[in-house]
Amino acid sequence: MPLAHTLLPRSYFAVLKLNTLYLYDSELQLECKETIQVNQYTVQIYPDNLKDHELFSKSTCIQLKCNDMTHCNYLLNCNRCVTKEDWYFALIRASQWNLSDKISNKTATHFDQEAMNHLLSTVYSSPRQFELRWFNGLLGRLFLGIYRTETTQSFFYNKILSKVQKLNARRPPFLEEITLRSVDSGHGAPQITQPRLVQLSPQGEYTGEVQLFYDGHFRVELETVLRWKYSERLPAIRIDLVLAITLRSIEGRLMVKLKEPPTNRVWLGFYEKPRMDWLVEPVVWEKRVGYSVVSKAIQAKIEEIFTETIVLPNMDDTVFFPTDGAGGIFDSPHPDYQSLPELYSTPSELVVTSEPVSLVSSDHQLTPPPIKKKWFKRN
Question: Is the model's pTM score more than 0.90?
Answer without folding.
Answer: no
